[in-house]
Amino acid sequence: MGRAIIVTAIIAAATGTAVVLLPRQGHGAEVRAGAEAGEEHEGTRTIRGATCGIERWPVKTLSDPAARRVDFAVRPATVRYLGSLRANPGGQESRAPLEMRVFSVRARLVGVKREPDSDYHLILSEGGATMIAEMPLTACTSGAQHRYAMSTARAELERALGGPVGESWIHPNLHVRVAGALFFDDPHGQSGHARNYAELHPVTGFRVLTGS
Length: 212
Prior knowledge:
Distance between the termini: 38 Å
Order of helices and strands: EEEEHEHEEEHEE
Oligomer: single chain
Helix content: 10-25%
Number of strands: 10
Shape: globular
Number of helices: 3
CATH superfamily: Nucleic acid-binding proteins
Number of domains: 1
């Protein structure tokens, strides 16, 4: 906070490649290589023919050991409030205390696309603040808690948009209510992130509100 932003370039002369070290953002994680170009970079793997993610994937899909203890009583919140929380992410298969809770927000759905890990990436906007919500592909959630709720939410989004979402951005501008487990992501070039990289991930409830 308040510190000068320093960008250091390290040139590997032997290979002719350049590595750019960006300032720490959000809760302190560094942007991965390539994120400075505004592109999202995250590893994927194939599970039974489906392309799924890797990093903190058990937590992102409610298949981690602590998922059974998540409090699924939905707490109404706002995009701005969730973006103001002190970020404290857990590990690859563990959850921080706030990641044990489920929140819902009312917001404008201003952007949607399918990511390389098959998630639907939603950008939610409310009161000048934005945050991300993510809907995993059902084939990537084997053995997960609340798998039906995740699948139903994704199907509701597809119904609202008239079909499956592709890899290019669409901008529905729908007034929606979205519920999901709170998750603190690391910066990796994602679009529409909250200041603290808080997300609703995975989404367990989705509804288009009347009047959209």
